[in-house]
Design brief:
The protein is mainly β. It has one helix spanning 259-270; strands at 8-11, 13-16, 22-27, 38-48, 56-62, 65-73, 76-80, 85-88, 93-97, 102-108, 115-124, 135-139, 144-147, 150-156, 158-159, 162-163, 172-179, 183-188, 194-201, 204-206, 209-211, 215-219, 225-230, 234-241, 249-251, 254-256. Strands 1-22-19-24-17-14-13 form a 7-stranded antiparallel sheet, with no helix packed on it. The model has no long low-confidence stretch (mean pLDDT 94).
């Protein structure tokens, strides 16, 4: 029997990245900290980047996670402390494994306006993989699969019969699912995963519920399929994974377990002990001050 369960909607909050750029933060939220190992999700744009320098996020460190960069429009130049300098284009997957620690910088690729739109997600690494060597992979060729009138592009894991080549460390899925016109689709789901879906563009119904832009639809474990329909060209983003049992401590750009780990990573950054990014025309981002007392998750 196929089951398409009721969805729970979680409204994203507008977050300022500090340079005036605003994004919609869909994870973590008070009502929904994570979905599988997906512990952070920002949805942004379309942002006008044609007239100015565009997006410029200076060198900053990460530990304990993988970052996923996926663009709908525009181009981003990724640089990291391993020496990678890669232009990420719409439809590509950029997957950076921070593990024990990596620094990266991201900026609008030169001359690639006028619009930037995409998502930035973090995957928490499980306990036994948290201190793995840092690495970066860029996937331009990703499998696509027809789902009714939609096309699914599989970024992470397996959807229907298509499997991404990207390496992750816990049971996960991520896909962009798009239509060129009005369409319906039945998307098969792993029943032991929890899932989240949101609209990147267009008006979309998920299991019969209209999804406004900036709202995450959460589907608890147990569902074997998801019904999507749209009356116009549309694009949704789907993430899922087996519920992640480890308690996470997210602070700044670190995914840790304890206050001591965060403090140690912050000290390493402030002491210049991470391998630096070469070639970025700008200053590294200083860590915010530590609050007094033990750290707790900030939402
Ligand atoms: Mn980053």
């Amino acid at each position: 029997m196929s089951l398409s369960l009721a969805i729970d909607t979680v409204i994203g909050r507008v977050a300022d990245l500090g340079d005036g750029t605003t994004v919609t933060r869909l994870l973590p939220r008070r009502r929904r900290r994570s979905i599988g190992a997906w512990c952070f999700a920002d949805d942004y744009g379309p942002l006008p980047v044609g007239d100015g320098p565009g997006m410029r996020v200076g060198p900053h460190p990460h530990i304990g996670l993988q970052t996923v960069t996926f663009l709908v429009a525009g181009e981003v130049l990724h640089r990291d402390g391993l020496g990678n300098a890669v232009v990420v284009r719409p439809g590509d997957l950029a997957l950076m494994t921070a593990g024990s620690g990596i620094v990266h910088a991201e900026e609008s690729a030169p001359g690639t306006g006028p619009i930037l739109q995409g998502v930035q997600l973090w995957i928490a690494l499980p306990g036994d993989r948290r201190w793995t060597e840092p690495s970066f992979s860029h996937h331009g060729e990703l499998p696509e699969i027809e789902l009714g009138g939609f096309v699914g592009r599989v970024l992470i894991g397996t959807l229907a019969s298509a499997t991404s080549p990207a390496a992750v460390h816990s049971p996960l899925v991520a896909a962009e699912i798009r239509s060129r016109s009005s369409a319906t689709a039945t998307v098969p789901l792993e029943s032991d995963y929890e899932h989240g879906v949101w609209s990147l563009s267009g008006s979309v119904r998920v299991n019969g519920t209209l999804l406004e832009r900036g709202t995450l639809a959460y589907i608890a474990p147990g569902a074997t399929e998801l019904l999507i329909d749209s009356a116009e060209p549309s694009r949704v983003f789907l993430v899922g994974g087996r519920p992640f049992e480890e308690e996470l401590l997210l602070w700044w750009n670190f995914v840790a377990r304890t206050s001591e780990e965060v403090t140690a990573a912050r000290s390493r950054w402030e002491a210049g002990e991470f391998a630096p990014v070469v070639g970025y025309d700008g200053c590294p981002i200083p860590a915010p001050p530590l609050p007094p007392g033990r750290l707790t998750a900030r939402l």
